[in-house]
Amino acid sequence: MGLEAGVDRGRLPRGTHGLAPEAVAHSQRMRMYLAVVEAVAERGYAATTVSDIVARANVSRRTFYELFRGRDDCFSEAFEAAVGLVLGELDTSVAATPRAEWRALIRTTLQTYLQLLSDNGIYARALHIECLVAGPIVAEQRRQMKRLLAHRMHAAFRIGRTAGDIPVDIPSETFDALIGAVDDRIRDCLDGPGPQALPDLSAHLYQITMALFGVPDWQD
Prior knowledge:
elongated, 66% helix
């Protein structure tokens, strides 16, 4: 997974290069998505400038402002693109799991999400740390991302409840709280051991999920 998939970071040649204007704009936009996420991960959101982005993306300031209003706009679009990639990978990972196996769906979702973040540390910081200081638009995007993840957990819960495996219903707010706990654990890990340690959280987060669902499983 990565915004960099299929993206040529080199500057496009001057003059006639045989590329349609739409293809040129897409290439430039994707390079700037990569650049802003990398710069923010390394320098922090507040310290990242348009100059940092265009230098990393190997584009001109004029090109940047043809596509974005400023740094905030660029990061907001990159954030949305990263979320889309993550959700797509989650869909792919659970597609092979029978829907009746709701516990396996939860395990797979947690394992896949944490492994994606571990393999792409810059996205982890963008999605879970630097987004907190990136302004109101990204704040709303972050809330939407968390709601989507909560909905996935709720869907798995409903499967278990319908099958009779889960004894009672729980308030809908519980799923938001669960994703908040996952988010908190991820941030602590990123600020501590680092993204390489994220997959180690999977078993513990699964246990927390089962406890919230009313079917605790504290076995090792």
